[in-house]
Design brief:
This protein is mainly beta. It has two domains: 273 residues, 6 Propeller (Neuraminidase); 119 residues, TolB, N-terminal domain (Rossmann fold, 3-Layer(aba) Sandwich). The protein contains four helices and 31 strands. Strands 2, 3, 4, 5, 6 and 7 form a six-stranded mixed beta sheet that branches. Strands 1-22-21-20-19 form a five-stranded mixed beta sheet, with no helix packed on it. Strands 10-9-8-31 form a four-stranded antiparallel beta sheet, with no helix packed on it. The model has no long low-confidence stretch (mean pLDDT 93).
Length: 415
Protein backbone atom coordinates (compact mmCIF):
# COMPACT_ATOMS: atom_id res chain seq x y z
CA UNK A 1 0.00 0.00 0.00
CA UNK A 2 1.31 3.43 -0.90
CA UNK A 3 1.08 6.10 1.79
CA UNK A 4 0.92 9.82 1.37
CA UNK A 5 2.53 11.85 4.09
CA UNK A 6 0.03 14.45 5.24
CA UNK A 7 1.27 17.89 6.29
CA UNK A 8 -0.86 20.65 7.74
CA UNK A 9 -0.97 22.68 4.56
CA UNK A 10 -2.14 19.63 2.56
CA UNK A 11 -5.27 18.91 4.58
CA UNK A 12 -8.31 19.25 2.34
CA UNK A 13 -11.46 21.10 3.42
CA UNK A 14 -13.54 19.03 5.81
CA UNK A 15 -16.70 19.35 3.74
CA UNK A 16 -15.02 17.49 0.87
CA UNK A 17 -14.21 14.44 3.00
CA UNK A 18 -17.58 14.75 4.71
CA UNK A 19 -19.19 14.49 1.28
CA UNK A 20 -17.22 11.34 0.49
CA UNK A 21 -17.92 9.72 3.85
CA UNK A 22 -21.58 10.61 3.56
CA UNK A 23 -21.90 8.04 0.78
CA UNK A 24 -21.21 5.35 3.38
CA UNK A 25 -24.10 6.39 5.61
CA UNK A 26 -27.58 6.81 4.14
CA UNK A 27 -28.80 10.39 4.56
CA UNK A 28 -32.42 11.54 4.18
CA UNK A 29 -33.45 11.62 0.55
CA UNK A 30 -30.86 9.05 -0.47
CA UNK A 31 -31.03 5.28 -0.39
CA UNK A 32 -33.99 2.91 -0.13
CA UNK A 33 -37.05 3.41 2.08
CA UNK A 34 -37.51 0.69 4.70
CA UNK A 35 -40.70 0.20 6.74
CA UNK A 36 -40.22 -1.74 9.98
CA UNK A 37 -43.62 -3.10 10.97
CA UNK A 38 -44.10 -4.10 14.59
CA UNK A 39 -43.69 -7.80 15.27
CA UNK A 40 -46.80 -9.45 16.68
CA UNK A 41 -47.00 -11.69 19.75
CA UNK A 42 -48.24 -15.20 18.94
CA UNK A 43 -48.62 -16.35 22.56
CA UNK A 44 -50.03 -14.95 25.79
CA UNK A 45 -47.73 -13.08 28.14
CA UNK A 46 -45.41 -11.71 25.46
CA UNK A 47 -46.59 -8.10 25.43
CA UNK A 48 -43.48 -6.68 27.14
CA UNK A 49 -41.17 -9.01 25.21
CA UNK A 50 -42.55 -8.00 21.82
CA UNK A 51 -42.42 -4.31 22.78
CA UNK A 52 -38.72 -4.72 23.64
CA UNK A 53 -38.09 -6.62 20.41
CA UNK A 54 -39.69 -3.87 18.30
CA UNK A 55 -37.81 -1.11 20.11
CA UNK A 56 -34.43 -2.84 19.73
CA UNK A 57 -34.95 -3.78 16.08
CA UNK A 58 -35.85 -0.21 15.14
CA UNK A 59 -32.85 1.19 17.04
CA UNK A 60 -30.52 -1.34 15.38
CA UNK A 61 -31.69 -0.46 11.88
CA UNK A 62 -31.62 3.27 12.55
CA UNK A 63 -28.02 3.14 13.78
CA UNK A 64 -27.01 0.81 10.94
CA UNK A 65 -27.70 3.66 8.52
CA UNK A 66 -28.33 1.41 5.53
CA UNK A 67 -31.79 2.76 4.63
CA UNK A 68 -34.21 5.59 5.37
CA UNK A 69 -36.76 4.37 7.90
CA UNK A 70 -40.38 5.25 7.14
CA UNK A 71 -42.18 6.84 10.09
CA UNK A 72 -44.60 4.42 11.74
CA UNK A 73 -47.40 6.98 11.78
CA UNK A 74 -47.66 6.44 8.01
CA UNK A 75 -48.10 2.67 8.21
CA UNK A 76 -51.35 0.87 7.28
CA UNK A 77 -53.55 -0.08 10.23
CA UNK A 78 -53.52 -3.79 9.37
CA UNK A 79 -51.33 -5.83 11.73
CA UNK A 80 -48.63 -7.63 9.84
CA UNK A 81 -47.43 -10.92 11.31
CA UNK A 82 -46.89 -13.20 8.30
CA UNK A 83 -46.81 -13.04 4.49
CA UNK A 84 -50.48 -13.93 4.27
CA UNK A 85 -51.30 -10.59 5.93
CA UNK A 86 -49.15 -8.54 3.58
CA UNK A 87 -50.79 -6.31 0.98
CA UNK A 88 -47.77 -4.93 -0.89
CA UNK A 89 -49.66 -2.07 -2.50
CA UNK A 90 -50.50 -0.65 0.94
CA UNK A 91 -46.80 -0.31 1.71
CA UNK A 92 -45.54 0.71 -1.74
CA UNK A 93 -48.04 3.53 -2.35
CA UNK A 94 -48.73 6.81 -0.57
CA UNK A 95 -48.33 7.68 2.21
CA UNK A 96 -45.81 4.93 3.09
CA UNK A 97 -43.94 4.74 -0.23
CA UNK A 98 -41.63 2.01 1.06
CA UNK A 99 -39.25 -0.04 -1.02
CA UNK A 100 -38.99 -2.76 1.60
CA UNK A 101 -40.95 -3.86 4.66
CA UNK A 102 -39.84 -6.08 7.50
CA UNK A 103 -42.32 -7.86 9.77
CA UNK A 104 -42.87 -11.05 11.71
CA UNK A 105 -44.05 -12.62 14.93
CA UNK A 106 -42.66 -13.45 18.35
CA UNK A 107 -43.46 -17.08 19.17
CA UNK A 108 -41.82 -17.04 22.61
CA UNK A 109 -39.22 -15.00 24.47
CA UNK A 110 -36.51 -17.02 22.68
CA UNK A 111 -38.13 -17.79 19.33
CA UNK A 112 -39.29 -15.57 16.46
CA UNK A 113 -39.98 -15.63 12.74
CA UNK A 114 -39.06 -12.62 10.61
CA UNK A 115 -39.60 -11.63 6.98
CA UNK A 116 -38.30 -8.97 4.60
CA UNK A 117 -40.23 -8.16 1.42
CA UNK A 118 -39.59 -6.01 -1.61
CA UNK A 119 -43.06 -4.46 -1.85
CA UNK A 120 -42.41 -2.90 -5.26
CA UNK A 121 -41.98 -6.35 -6.82
CA UNK A 122 -43.93 -8.34 -4.18
CA UNK A 123 -40.98 -10.65 -3.67
CA UNK A 124 -39.76 -12.25 -0.45
CA UNK A 125 -36.12 -11.40 0.23
CA UNK A 126 -35.73 -12.99 3.63
CA UNK A 127 -37.41 -15.56 5.85
CA UNK A 128 -35.52 -15.93 9.11
CA UNK A 129 -36.16 -18.22 12.07
CA UNK A 130 -34.60 -16.56 15.10
CA UNK A 131 -33.78 -18.45 18.28
CA UNK A 132 -31.60 -18.42 21.37
CA UNK A 133 -30.59 -15.73 23.84
CA UNK A 134 -33.35 -13.28 24.79
CA UNK A 135 -35.62 -10.94 22.86
CA UNK A 136 -32.87 -8.35 22.51
CA UNK A 137 -30.63 -10.99 20.94
CA UNK A 138 -33.44 -12.05 18.58
CA UNK A 139 -33.89 -8.46 17.43
CA UNK A 140 -30.13 -8.05 16.93
CA UNK A 141 -30.04 -11.23 14.83
CA UNK A 142 -32.86 -10.05 12.58
CA UNK A 143 -31.35 -6.57 12.17
CA UNK A 144 -28.07 -8.09 11.04
CA UNK A 145 -29.83 -10.36 8.55
CA UNK A 146 -31.68 -7.37 7.07
CA UNK A 147 -28.41 -5.43 6.77
CA UNK A 148 -26.74 -8.42 5.10
CA UNK A 149 -29.61 -8.83 2.64
CA UNK A 150 -29.75 -5.15 1.65
CA UNK A 151 -26.01 -4.42 1.55
CA UNK A 152 -24.18 -7.71 1.20
CA UNK A 153 -22.15 -6.78 4.30
CA UNK A 154 -22.39 -8.16 7.82
CA UNK A 155 -24.21 -6.03 10.36
CA UNK A 156 -22.94 -5.06 13.81
CA UNK A 157 -26.00 -5.59 16.01
CA UNK A 158 -24.62 -8.84 17.45
CA UNK A 159 -21.08 -7.46 17.92
CA UNK A 160 -19.42 -6.79 21.29
CA UNK A 161 -17.46 -3.94 22.84
CA UNK A 162 -14.70 -4.43 25.42
CA UNK A 163 -13.82 -1.55 27.74
CA UNK A 164 -12.30 -0.73 31.11
CA UNK A 165 -14.60 -0.21 34.11
CA UNK A 166 -13.64 -0.33 37.79
CA UNK A 167 -10.05 -1.31 36.91
CA UNK A 168 -11.13 -4.51 35.12
CA UNK A 169 -12.04 -5.41 31.53
CA UNK A 170 -15.76 -5.57 30.83
CA UNK A 171 -17.76 -6.65 27.78
CA UNK A 172 -21.11 -5.32 26.58
CA UNK A 173 -23.40 -5.56 23.60
CA UNK A 174 -22.71 -3.02 20.87
CA UNK A 175 -25.59 -0.82 22.06
CA UNK A 176 -24.39 -0.69 25.67
CA UNK A 177 -26.67 -3.36 27.14
CA UNK A 178 -25.62 -6.52 28.95
CA UNK A 179 -22.39 -5.17 30.44
CA UNK A 180 -20.50 -7.83 32.42
CA UNK A 181 -17.07 -8.05 33.98
CA UNK A 182 -14.63 -10.10 31.90
CA UNK A 183 -11.29 -10.02 33.73
CA UNK A 184 -11.03 -10.78 37.44
CA UNK A 185 -7.37 -10.15 38.07
CA UNK A 186 -7.92 -8.16 41.25
CA UNK A 187 -5.38 -5.58 40.10
CA UNK A 188 -5.38 -2.97 37.35
CA UNK A 189 -6.39 -3.77 33.76
CA UNK A 190 -5.71 -1.39 30.85
CA UNK A 191 -5.81 -1.20 27.05
CA UNK A 192 -8.23 -4.01 26.05
CA UNK A 193 -7.93 -5.11 22.41
CA UNK A 194 -10.26 -7.63 20.79
CA UNK A 195 -9.20 -9.78 17.85
CA UNK A 196 -11.07 -8.96 14.65
CA UNK A 197 -13.10 -12.18 14.88
CA UNK A 198 -13.90 -11.56 18.55
CA UNK A 199 -12.35 -14.87 19.64
CA UNK A 200 -9.56 -13.46 21.83
CA UNK A 201 -8.82 -10.40 23.91
CA UNK A 202 -5.43 -8.91 24.80
CA UNK A 203 -4.99 -6.37 27.58
CA UNK A 204 -2.41 -5.09 30.05
CA UNK A 205 -2.69 -6.39 33.61
CA UNK A 206 -0.76 -5.72 36.80
CA UNK A 207 -1.62 -9.21 38.12
CA UNK A 208 2.08 -10.19 38.10
CA UNK A 209 3.17 -7.01 39.86
CA UNK A 210 4.34 -5.48 36.60
CA UNK A 211 2.23 -4.27 33.66
CA UNK A 212 2.25 -7.21 31.22
CA UNK A 213 0.14 -8.24 28.26
CA UNK A 214 -2.38 -11.00 28.94
CA UNK A 215 -4.21 -12.80 26.14
CA UNK A 216 -7.44 -14.63 26.93
CA UNK A 217 -10.02 -16.50 24.90
CA UNK A 218 -13.56 -15.14 25.20
CA UNK A 219 -14.42 -17.88 27.69
CA UNK A 220 -11.76 -16.37 29.97
CA UNK A 221 -8.98 -18.94 29.57
CA UNK A 222 -5.46 -17.49 29.49
CA UNK A 223 -3.77 -18.21 26.15
CA UNK A 224 -0.53 -16.44 26.97
CA UNK A 225 1.16 -13.51 28.69
CA UNK A 226 4.40 -11.55 28.64
CA UNK A 227 6.70 -11.71 31.65
CA UNK A 228 8.60 -8.43 31.54
CA UNK A 229 9.75 -6.37 34.51
CA UNK A 230 9.18 -3.13 32.64
CA UNK A 231 6.42 -0.84 31.42
CA UNK A 232 4.36 -2.53 28.70
CA UNK A 233 1.32 -0.94 27.08
CA UNK A 234 -1.21 -0.88 24.25
CA UNK A 235 -1.32 -4.43 22.83
CA UNK A 236 -3.10 -5.21 19.56
CA UNK A 237 -3.83 -8.54 17.87
CA UNK A 238 -2.94 -8.98 14.21
CA UNK A 239 -5.24 -10.70 11.69
CA UNK A 240 -2.89 -13.72 11.79
CA UNK A 241 -2.90 -13.88 15.60
CA UNK A 242 0.39 -12.15 16.40
CA UNK A 243 0.75 -9.48 19.06
CA UNK A 244 2.17 -5.99 18.76
CA UNK A 245 2.74 -3.80 21.82
CA UNK A 246 4.93 -1.08 23.29
CA UNK A 247 7.45 -1.80 26.06
CA UNK A 248 10.57 -0.43 27.78
CA UNK A 249 11.86 -3.94 28.46
CA UNK A 250 15.19 -3.46 26.63
CA UNK A 251 15.92 0.25 27.04
CA UNK A 252 14.90 3.49 28.64
CA UNK A 253 12.74 4.23 25.61
CA UNK A 254 9.29 2.87 24.88
CA UNK A 255 9.71 0.78 21.72
CA UNK A 256 7.37 -1.27 19.51
CA UNK A 257 7.59 -5.07 19.66
CA UNK A 258 5.92 -7.90 17.81
CA UNK A 259 5.42 -11.35 19.39
CA UNK A 260 3.63 -14.62 18.93
CA UNK A 261 -0.01 -14.79 19.92
CA UNK A 262 0.88 -16.17 23.35
CA UNK A 263 3.36 -13.38 24.06
CA UNK A 264 6.47 -15.44 23.36
CA UNK A 265 9.25 -14.60 20.93
CA UNK A 266 9.06 -10.82 21.32
CA UNK A 267 11.09 -9.00 18.68
CA UNK A 268 11.87 -5.29 18.74
CA UNK A 269 10.76 -3.27 15.70
CA UNK A 270 11.75 0.31 16.55
CA UNK A 271 15.03 1.68 17.88
CA UNK A 272 15.06 5.26 19.10
CA UNK A 273 16.88 7.17 21.82
CA UNK A 274 15.03 9.25 24.38
CA UNK A 275 11.73 8.81 22.53
CA UNK A 276 8.36 7.26 23.20
CA UNK A 277 6.83 4.88 20.64
CA UNK A 278 3.38 3.71 21.66
CA UNK A 279 -0.12 2.73 20.53
CA UNK A 280 0.79 0.34 17.67
CA UNK A 281 -2.11 -0.81 15.51
CA UNK A 282 -2.11 -3.22 12.58
CA UNK A 283 -3.64 -2.50 9.23
CA UNK A 284 -6.37 -5.16 9.61
CA UNK A 285 -7.00 -5.28 5.88
CA UNK A 286 -3.51 -6.47 4.99
CA UNK A 287 -1.71 -7.25 8.26
CA UNK A 288 1.41 -5.84 6.60
CA UNK A 289 1.60 -2.34 8.12
CA UNK A 290 1.60 -0.96 11.64
CA UNK A 291 0.59 2.57 12.60
CA UNK A 292 1.97 3.95 15.85
CA UNK A 293 2.61 7.19 17.74
CA UNK A 294 6.11 8.54 18.29
CA UNK A 295 7.49 11.76 19.71
CA UNK A 296 10.88 11.28 18.03
CA UNK A 297 10.42 14.57 16.17
CA UNK A 298 9.13 16.52 19.16
CA UNK A 299 5.35 16.34 19.63
CA UNK A 300 3.64 12.93 19.33
CA UNK A 301 2.73 12.25 15.68
CA UNK A 302 1.51 9.20 13.75
CA UNK A 303 4.01 7.03 11.90
CA UNK A 304 3.69 3.87 9.83
CA UNK A 305 6.10 1.01 9.29
CA UNK A 306 6.04 -2.37 7.63
CA UNK A 307 5.20 -5.29 9.90
CA UNK A 308 8.86 -6.31 10.07
CA UNK A 309 9.90 -2.87 11.36
CA UNK A 310 11.32 -1.56 8.09
CA UNK A 311 10.28 1.46 6.06
CA UNK A 312 9.34 3.73 8.97
CA UNK A 313 7.77 6.96 7.75
CA UNK A 314 5.49 9.70 9.08
CA UNK A 315 1.87 9.32 8.06
CA UNK A 316 0.25 12.27 9.81
CA UNK A 317 2.30 15.35 10.64
CA UNK A 318 -0.20 18.04 11.51
CA UNK A 319 1.35 19.71 14.54
CA UNK A 320 -0.16 19.52 17.99
CA UNK A 321 -0.30 16.19 19.81
CA UNK A 322 -1.70 12.95 18.39
CA UNK A 323 -2.56 9.67 20.08
CA UNK A 324 -4.36 6.35 19.68
CA UNK A 325 -4.41 5.66 15.93
CA UNK A 326 -7.05 3.12 14.93
CA UNK A 327 -7.09 1.56 11.47
CA UNK A 328 -10.50 0.77 10.00
CA UNK A 329 -11.08 -2.93 9.18
CA UNK A 330 -11.33 -2.10 5.48
CA UNK A 331 -7.95 -0.34 5.61
CA UNK A 332 -9.39 2.90 4.24
CA UNK A 333 -9.25 5.24 7.24
CA UNK A 334 -7.24 5.90 10.38
CA UNK A 335 -9.08 7.46 13.31
CA UNK A 336 -6.97 9.23 15.92
CA UNK A 337 -7.01 11.65 18.84
CA UNK A 338 -5.64 15.14 18.09
CA UNK A 339 -5.63 18.44 19.92
CA UNK A 340 -5.27 20.51 16.73
CA UNK A 341 -7.75 21.67 14.13
CA UNK A 342 -10.04 23.54 16.49
CA UNK A 343 -8.78 23.12 20.04
CA UNK A 344 -9.19 20.39 22.65
CA UNK A 345 -8.65 16.68 22.22
CA UNK A 346 -11.07 15.22 19.71
CA UNK A 347 -11.52 12.23 17.42
CA UNK A 348 -10.40 12.91 13.86
CA UNK A 349 -10.51 10.77 10.75
CA UNK A 350 -7.86 10.55 8.02
CA UNK A 351 -8.47 9.09 4.59
CA UNK A 352 -5.21 7.20 4.01
CA UNK A 353 -5.40 7.41 0.22
CA UNK A 354 -6.35 11.07 -0.21
CA UNK A 355 -4.76 12.68 2.84
CA UNK A 356 -7.95 14.42 3.94
CA UNK A 357 -8.77 14.87 7.62
CA UNK A 358 -12.18 15.30 9.24
CA UNK A 359 -12.97 16.24 12.82
CA UNK A 360 -15.73 14.01 14.21
CA UNK A 361 -16.29 15.22 17.80
CA UNK A 362 -16.42 18.60 19.51
CA UNK A 363 -18.07 18.35 22.92
CA UNK A 364 -15.83 17.61 25.91
CA UNK A 365 -12.61 15.64 25.60
CA UNK A 366 -12.81 12.63 23.26
CA UNK A 367 -10.18 9.90 22.92
CA UNK A 368 -9.37 6.27 22.05
CA UNK A 369 -11.45 5.62 18.95
CA UNK A 370 -12.27 1.99 18.10
CA UNK A 371 -13.78 0.76 14.83
CA UNK A 372 -16.86 -1.37 14.41
CA UNK A 373 -16.34 -4.59 12.40
CA UNK A 374 -18.12 -3.06 9.38
CA UNK A 375 -15.89 0.06 9.19
CA UNK A 376 -19.04 2.23 9.35
CA UNK A 377 -19.08 3.19 13.03
CA UNK A 378 -16.73 4.22 15.83
CA UNK A 379 -16.75 3.85 19.60
CA UNK A 380 -14.74 6.24 21.77
CA UNK A 381 -14.42 7.56 25.30
CA UNK A 382 -15.70 11.02 26.18
CA UNK A 383 -15.93 13.06 29.38
CA UNK A 384 -18.69 15.33 28.06
CA UNK A 385 -21.07 14.19 30.82
CA UNK A 386 -18.58 14.94 33.59
CA UNK A 387 -16.78 11.58 33.66
CA UNK A 388 -15.40 9.12 31.16
CA UNK A 389 -18.05 7.09 29.37
CA UNK A 390 -18.14 5.04 26.17
CA UNK A 391 -19.91 6.58 23.18
CA UNK A 392 -20.54 5.47 19.59
CA UNK A 393 -21.17 7.32 16.32
CA UNK A 394 -21.34 6.92 12.56
CA UNK A 395 -18.08 7.19 10.65
CA UNK A 396 -19.06 10.73 9.58
CA UNK A 397 -19.50 11.84 13.21
CA UNK A 398 -23.30 11.79 13.19
CA UNK A 399 -25.67 9.90 15.51
CA UNK A 400 -23.43 10.17 18.59
CA UNK A 401 -24.92 8.18 21.45
CA UNK A 402 -23.83 7.23 24.96
CA UNK A 403 -23.33 3.50 25.62
CA UNK A 404 -22.23 3.32 29.27
CA UNK A 405 -23.74 5.06 32.29
CA UNK A 406 -21.45 3.93 35.12
CA UNK A 407 -18.08 4.87 33.67
CA UNK A 408 -15.97 3.40 30.89
CA UNK A 409 -12.69 3.92 29.03
CA UNK A 410 -10.63 2.45 26.17
CA UNK A 411 -13.23 0.70 23.99
CA UNK A 412 -12.40 -2.11 21.56
CA UNK A 413 -15.04 -3.40 19.13
CA UNK A 414 -15.29 -6.78 17.36
CA UNK A 415 -17.70 -9.42 16.10
Amino acid sequence: MAFRTIHAQQVAPQDELKKQIGTIIVTPGNGPMLAVADFQARAAGLDQAVATFNEVLLADLRFAGIANLVGKSLYPKTRLADPASLKPEEWASDPVKADYVSFGSLLSATDAQGFLYDVKTNSQLLSARLSGGDVRDLAHQFADQIVKMLTGQNGIATSKVAFIANREVSLMDYDGYGARQFSRDGSIALFPSLALDGSRLAYVSYRSGHPNVVVRSLDGLIIGATQFKATTTSPALAPDGRLVFSSSKDSDSMEIYVANGDGSGARRLTTTRNAVNISPRWNPKTGREIAFVSDRGGAPQIYVMDADGTNERPLLSLGGQMDSPAWSPDGRYIAFTWNGGGGGYNIHLADVATGQVLRLTSEGRNENAAWSPDSRHLAFQSNRTGRWEIWAMHVDGSEQRQLTRNGGRSPSWAK
